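User: Sequence in, structure out. Go.
Assistant: Echoing your sequence, followed by the structure tokens.
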Amino acid sequence: MPTDLDDGPPPYTVAMHINVRFVHVVTLAENMDAATQMVRSQIELFVNKARAEAEAAGIQMKCEYMVTY
């Protein structure tokens, strides 16, 4: 019977939630929607690279976008 000091046998599932904020000043855009799309495209490149590296390490990565102004 497991106690507080005994986690039982492996495997263990560990989940971590992180909050990452990207900020970029856009000077060459027609409007806020265009600026947002430009930044989102750049962020997606970073996220896709991170996702590929995570998968190579056996880590499942989920990403949810939240845009703030």
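User: And one key feature?
Assistant: The helical segments are 32-56.
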